Amino acid sequence: MSTITEIKDTLQDKLGAVIVEIADRSDLHKHHQSRMNAPVGSGHYDAIIVAPSFAGKTMMQQHRMVYAALAEQMQTTIHAIALKTYTPEQWQQIDRREAAL
User: Fold this and answer.
1) What is the CATH number of the domain that holds 87?
2) Which domain holds residue 79?
3) What DSSP letter does each residue of 43-76 carry, written as one string?
4) Per-residue pLDDT, 67
5) Rounded to the nearest 5 degrees, what angle is found at the Cα of 68, between the Cα atoms of 2 and 41?
6) Mean pLDDT of each 10-residue bin along the chain, 101 residues long
């Protein structure tokens, strides 16, 4: 299973995410040192996550929820992840160009 698939599955299972879009940006970080025997620069992602469980939470709380859900991967396969988080209601109201990865 690919890392992107694992991230999506984890966020859907643990947060009830209804939309998870992930872009691998590792190619932009080839100069970074590797860790845990991962290829140099690997593990850099951008993510859009839409989840009802984000309702009533601040952006920081939403991001903490994502980091908690991905805690295991953050120790192994994810070096960095840039987050854009939304409730389903927010997702319906935003300009999609604003939310593009």
Assistant:
1) 3.30.300.90
2) 3-95
3) -EEEEEEE-GGGTT--HHHHHHHHHHHTHHHHTT
4) 97
5) 45
6) 93 98 80 49 86 98 98 90 96 82 72
pLDDT (0 to 100) of residue 62: 98
- Number of domains composing the chain: 1
- Quick one: tokens of 86? 């939304």
Q: How many CA atoms lie within 13 A of 79 on its CB side?
A: 20
What confidence score (pLDDT) does residue 28 get?
64
Q: Is residue 100 part of a domain?
A: no
pLDDT of residue 27: 73
The Cα-based distances of 2 to 9, 42, 51, 79 in angstroms read 11, 13, 22, 15
d(CA 91, CA 88) in angstroms, rounded, equals 5
